[in-house]
Structure formats: C-alpha cells, structure tokens
Amino acid sequence: MKLAVIGADGQLGTDLMKLAPQAVGLTVADLDITDEAKSRVVLGQIKPAVVINTAAYNRVDDCEEKKELAYAVNAAGAGNIARICKELNAALVHLSTDYVFAGTKKTPYKETDNPDPTTVYGASKLAGEKEVSSTLSQHYIIRTSALFGTAGCLGKGGTNFVDVMVKKAQEGKLIKVVADEIVGPTYARDLAAKILQLIEQPEYGLYHVTNAGQCSWYEFAREILRLISSKTPLEPVSGTEFQAKAKRPAYSVLAHDHLKQLGLDDLRSWQDALKAYLQEKACLK
Ligand SMILES: NC(=O)c1ccc[n+]([C@@H]2O[C@H](COP(=O)([O-])OP(=O)(O)OC[C@H]3O[C@@H](n4cnc5c(N)ncnc54)[C@H](OP(=O)(O)O)[C@@H]3O)[C@@H](O)[C@H]2O)c1
C-alpha cells in the first residue's frame, strides 16, 4: 500500500516515518496544504493509496489572534487534501484534537459526544474534521491529545510537555504545573503504530486514540520527575494562574469506543508509554 505522510518532520510524522520507512514523507517545503494546486501536483505524482495528514497550525494561544491562519491550515487545508484524495481515490487519515470539546464532562468523551470547542484552535480543527467528512467517505479522522514524541512538536518549537519538564527538573528550580486540567497523554510512537494498524482495514470514520488512563498536567509532571529520580520541587496550581489567551478544557479525556468495536483498543497506559519514551530519549539510567 503506497503511503504519503504530510508533516513528515513533525512530532507524529517523524514516528510514522520511523515505523513506515517505505512511506513518502512530505515536509511543508514539499507540500503546503494551504496551496491546493501544488498539493494536487505533488500527490498526483506520488499516487498514494493512503495519505496521512498530520499538518496543523497548533500554537493554541497564538490561534486566538491568528484566526485566519488557523482556519487556513486546520480547516481549508484539510479540505484541500480531502478533495485531492477523492480525485485520486485515496483514503485520508486526518489528525484532530481533544480540544474540539469544551471539557465540561467528568467522564471520557465518546466519539458520539457533540463537540463544543472553546478555543479558535479547537474550532478550526473541528471545521477541518467537517471538511474531511463531508468531502470524502474514505476517511479516518483521529482525535488525539497531549502528544509526546522524540521529534517534539515542531509547531511548538520542537518540544513537548515531557521534554520541558525534564529540562526544568535539571535546572532544579520550583516547577508550577496546572492541576485542574485533566488529559490523556499520548506517546506519538504508540499513536503512529495504531494509525498504521487501522489503515489495514477499510473501517472508515471517527476514532479517539490516546494511551490508556488520564491525569492532570501536575500528575503527569509528578510521574516524569519520579521516573527520572528528580528531587526538584513541584507545585500544583490552577490554570487561571497562567492567564493563557486560550481557555483550555478542564477535562478532555477521550474514550476509545470505536477502537473497542474493532478489537483494537489495546494501547498501553500513559505511565508505561512515558517510561518507554524516557528510555527512548535516554533520560532513564
Ligand atoms: N501536539 C499535541 O499535543 C497534539 C494534541 C492533539 C492533537 N494534535 C494533532 O496531531 C497532529 C500532529 O501534531 P504534532 O505534534 O506532530 O505537530 P507538529 O510537530 O507541529 O507537526 C506538524 C507538521 O505539519 C507541518 N505543517 C505545518 N503547516 C503546514 C502546512 N501548511 N502544510 C504542510 N505541512 C505543514 C509542520 O511543519 P513546519 O513546522 O515546518 O511548518 C510539521 O512538520 C496535528 O494535526 C495536531 O493538531 C496534536
């Protein structure tokens, strides 16, 4: 099966390319999803059976002020790729986010729950989902959350929460971390493996894919520090203390009902995944 990965040098894209080295990897220099005409030429030459679109404008706070850019990449860009896939009779894997939910629930969000984003980022990603699902039936829309992978999130300066905590732990100064936002951390490598497994079957639709379990950012940080045996002090704080421009969901854990229905809900716990990640990064002795 010929595979094309858009955003191949990003956090998820890098792990996809590691696990599927035969795929054609495309960086933004090769293919900019906001340029439909050029994207058509590039993908037309490759003739992929499946395209995985990891590209996004994902600076959550900046999206609040750069609404046009957020929609151009996350919504219109997604629509461009969906139209091209339809012309090429290719399937499309499109990545989305837990931030399509407001976070008012207290139990994991199911694929059947109505999205109600509170941020421009979440709204633009939801618009992208709609572009894809209304254009192309052969789609897998995959919502994930709190990604950590060895390449780091390119859109966020090539880093991720785990890397930031490890760096701060090494500096040894008090670390303040939000304790009232609950997420489902996800190892990019595990997500990449699940995507590659999913595309083996034509079971199209919407999927929630994260590692198993949930935690606050504070609990996530505490586990990171425990695993690297750091004694750096850690203090739980409220999200309001950071006065971020975008109001994050208080609870955005994703339930995996659709993976379950396929017998594919076997992702390991976020704690086991975190340990594997720190080993991969050589942070564990
Ligand atoms: N990171 C998270 O915690 C998280 C959580 C939930 C969902 N997601 C979703 O998961 C997906 C992957 O995230 P990630 O962490 O791997 O992000 P990432 O590291 O920022 O990777 C995104 C990739 O897309 C490229 N890109 C950006 N704009 C593009 C454009 N117009 N055309 C083509 N390529 C473009 C980026 O290249 P340049 O940087 O060189 O422009 C980068 O290679 C995204 O769809 C994101 O919304 C991420």
CATH class descriptor:
Alpha Beta
Total domain units: 1
Shape, principal axes of CA atoms: globular
Strand content: 15-25%
Can you characterise this structure?
- This protein is of the alpha/beta class and 285 residues long.
- The chain has a single domain, classed as Rossmann fold, CATH 3.40.50.720.
- 40% of the residues lie in helices and 15% in strands.
- The chain is built from 10 helices and 12 strands.
- The chain has helices at residues 11-19, 36-46, 60-65, 67-88, 120-135, 161-171, 188-198, 217-227, 257-261, 270-280; strands spanning 3-6, 24-26, 50-53, 91-97, 139-144, 147-148, 175-178, 182-183, 186-187, 205-208, 215-216, 234-237.
- The strands form 4 sheets. The chain has a 6-stranded parallel sheet, sandwiched between helices.
- Helix 5 (120-135) links the parallel strand 4 (91-97) and strand 5 (139-144).
- Helix 1 (11-19) packs across helix 7 (188-198), helix 4 (67-88) packs parallel to helix 5 and helix 6 (161-171) crosses helix 8.
- The radius of gyration is 18 Å and the shape is globular.
- The N and C termini lie far apart (39 Å).
- The model has no long low-confidence stretch (mean pLDDT 97).
- The site of NADP nicotinamide-adenine-dinucleotide phosphate has 29 residues, from helix 1, helix 4 and strand 4.
Summarize the structure.
The protein has 285 residues and is α/β, with parallel strands linked by helices.
